[in-house]
Every structure is written in C-alpha cells, then in structure tokens.
Amino acid sequence: MTGLNEQSREPFKTGGISRIQEKNRSLILEAALGEFSKKGFSGATVERIAAEAGMSKSNLLYYFPSKEAIYNAALAHILEVWLAPLKTLDPQGEPADELAAYIRQKIAMSATYPEASRLFANEVMQGAPQILPILETNLKRLVDEKCQVIEDWIAAGKIRRIDPVHLIFTIWATTQHYADFSVQIKALTGKDLSDEDFLRETEQSVTAIVLNGLGITWPQAEQGAE
Amino acid sequence: MTGLNEQSREPFKTGGISRIQEKNRSLILEAALGEFSKKGFSGATVERIAAEAGMSKSNLLYYFPSKEAIYNAALAHILEVWLAPLKTLDPQGEPADELAAYIRQKIAMSATYPEASRLFANEVMQGAPQILPILETNLKRLVDEKCQVIEDWIAAGKIRRIDPVHLIFTIWATTQHYADFSVQIKALTGKDLSDEDFLRETEQSVTAIVLNGLGITWPQAEQGAE
DNA sequence: TTGCATCTTGACCATTTGGTCAAATCGTTC
DNA sequence: GAACGATTTGACCAAATGGTCAAGATGCAA
C-alpha cells in the first residue's frame, strides 16, 4: 500500500508521452474503473482489466507497475471530477439556487458516472486505505470552507439553523445512494437513473426534501410544466 | 453462486444442534461479518475468518461447506435484523412520530451494527449476486406496503406530497451513510456514531431535514434540554 | 471403561493470480 | 533500409487460497 501520488514513469524517458501511450493508459483506466467498481479491489483481476482494455496482461503491466498502481491511478482519475461539484457552491448566490444546483449536479454525476461513485464508495468503505490522507487534507479543507458558506447563510437568516456538515453528508448520501445502490433501486422500482423520467423524479424529490428541510421557500420550478 | 437459503446440514444427522455446534456457528458468523464487511467477499479469506473465530480453517469448513456458504449465512443472519425497523412503521401513528422513530432506529442500527451495514452495502454494490431475489420479492413487498402507508398520510394531508419511495430511499441513504462512510466522516469531523454526542447531533440533523422536508411541524423535542 | 459419533487438525492438492523476463514485433529517425 | 528504442506478448514463477482427506482427539452414553 504505497502512496497515491506516485505514478509509473517507467516507459517514457523523454518528457513527452506518445500517442499510443496516452491511448493505452486511457483504455486501461477506463477498463480498471469498470472492473474495480464492479468487483472491488480484491475481486478485480489484472487479466480481466487487460482483456477489457484489449491488450495482454503483460502489456498492461508495461504501463502500470502493479495492480495497486492501476487502482490508485483509476481512483485519482475520478477523484477530482467526483469532488468538483462542491467547489462550485457560491457564497454569493442564493442558498436555494446554489443548493438546488449542487444537488442537481450530484445526481447528474450519479447518473453519468455510477461506476466512479461505486469505486469511491468501495474505497471508503474498506477504510480508505489509499485516499485517507486526501480526505483528511484536501477534502477536509474544501468541506470546512463550504461549511462556513452555509454558516453564513444561516447567520443571514436565509436557511434554517442546521449543522452544515450534516447537510453536506445528507446531500452526499442521498445523491450517491442512487448510484451505489442502483441495483436495489431497480429491484424496488423497476427503474434507475438511466431512465430520464426517474432521473427528473429523483431530482425533484431529493431537492424538495432538502430545501424544504432547510426552510427554504422552494419554487419547485417547472413542476407545472412537466 | 448458489442460492441463499441453502444451509449446511451436513454435520448433524439428528434433528438437534449440539451446544458446541451452536457456539461455533455463532463464532464463525461473527468473524465472517467482520471480515467480509472489512474486505469484501473476494478480499476476505477463509483462513482469516477461521483465525478470528479461534479455530482452524479445516474446522471452519466442517461447519460450512464453502466460503460462499459462510458469506450467505452471514448475509442472511443480518438481513432480517437490518430490514426490521421499516416493519414497525405504523399506519395508525402520527407521521411525525413514526418517521422520527424510524430514523432514530435506523441511525441506532448504523451505530450498533456498522459492519452489517457495510456488508449489506457491499453486497448490493456488487450487484446483489446473492440477495437480489430477496430484494425483488420480500423487500419489494415490504416497501410497497409502507409506500401505501405514506401515500395515505399524504392523502390525509398530514405530510407534503412526495413520492414515497424516494422518501424511503432518502432515509436509508442518510442513515446508512454514517455507517458505510464512517471513515470519511471521521476524517472530516473527527467523530463518528460511536461518539454519543455526535450520534445525537446526527439524529437531530437528519430528523430535522427529513421531517421539515415533509412539511411536518416538528417539535424538535428535548432540544432545549440538551 | 468401552465404543461410537462428533469434532478438530495438519498435510496436501489444484487453481488462481500478480508479477517477471527474454524474445519478438512495431515505428521512427537517420 | 538499417538501427534503435518503444511496444507487445507468451512462457514461466512464486505465493496465496479454497477446498479435500485421513487420522487423531474429544465428548458422551451405556
């Protein structure tokens, strides 16, 4: 279990990355995301990832020195995009708009990148062996910052008093749930976020609960139109 | 991947289960819960489970015919208790009381049996290979029934109009999140549900959002007292 | 105590799997 | 097209692991 930041720099001595390198890395990372999110770290096999990426196991190991390195690379690859939405929460904006937009983005992420959500969930559930340091530094810094934004909204009387961190957890939990537990959701409703109507429905419901939960007069936009 | 319901009936030909059988089964299931929830199905090893249970691998395999059988038994063992709280949702009760009680129970479950939550989450995230049939039958029946209860509350004007199934998902997501992502929560807040104050705080926050989200006049009981 | 079923274990096996390596092929530059 | 580095692969290895088996230990009833 080495650090997350180390990348394989073996194959290219010169500064540039050949086109074939870039393509294969990308193929590998995509295949790795699929496999790791589906089977977990231990359940995934290097051979299957290689097959999925359309190359031999040996060749894959030419690009990444170990299974763990592939895993870390896949994780790092999704992490930034996965945590990006929170950064857009604007202190200047209206809480209703900002939070609704944040929820919408998070649900869109769950719909578009369910595998990323599951990979992340898997990692954290196993104790975050690879990304714990990042959670404790980068993510904590970001969350602290946004908690302050929420605090300010509370102080300004714009939303009901609540512990900001629990609000963030609630939004994370509800939105990611639809990706992580999509099988269960499909078993119970017959649909999941890949269904457009269900996506809108989910967006409506989650947004309604959270915003009303915060005492925000929530216009429930375009509800009449649909 | 055989069915979930089959249990190892090898060791005892006679109807009764010896005391030692009962004890060892229990030890094994407890150890299995710990290992499977920590490492996932593939990551867990029979030998470690056996060691944790204080016996040899061979002996463990005397009680359960295979790793998968242990997994299924552990899963079946927690499933009932895990889904029990929803059953207590009483159509006769007041929504505020009933939902608050349900949320409290679910959070208590997350605090008391976080491993069960993670085991369940893991199973579902991997596509519920073992319990999908149960989700589609037993759980669906239960959820449908409780959705009707919520519908009735809506029809009676007791809570805001919302799709009941999303309300249930929201409660599941928020409450289980504190068990499944406890490492992340600890990284961000320094605490988790094992901390009594944090437990109360979580209960308050989640209940407040959900109940207010449903437009329920929520007394916020004993908030002044604490 | 004896006898038998239950329980326990170490030795062993077959398979899976992460990773190595030398050889072969491909691509590019001169 | 020669040379050389980049890319690709099959053969192979060592460790881990799920599971079997025969033999031994233990508990219990008569």
UniProtKB/TrEMBL annotation, chains A, B:
Domain HTH tetR-type: 22-82
InterPro entries referenced in this protein's UniProt entry, alphabetically: Homeodomain-like_sf, HTH-type_TetR-like_transc_reg, HTH_TetR, Tet_transcr_reg_TetR-rel_C_sf, Tscrpt_reg_YcdC_C
Superkingdom in the source lineage: Bacteria
Biological processes, Gene Ontology terms: negative regulation of DNA-templated transcription
Pfam families xrefs: TetR_C_3, TetR_N
Keyword DNA-binding: yes
Feature: DNA-binding region: 45-64
Cited Gene3D superfamilies: Homeodomain-like (1.10.10.60), Tetracycline Repressor, domain 2 (1.10.357.10)
GO MF, one example: DNA binding
UniProtKB keywords: DNA-binding
Protein name: TetR family transcriptional regulator C-terminal domain-containing protein
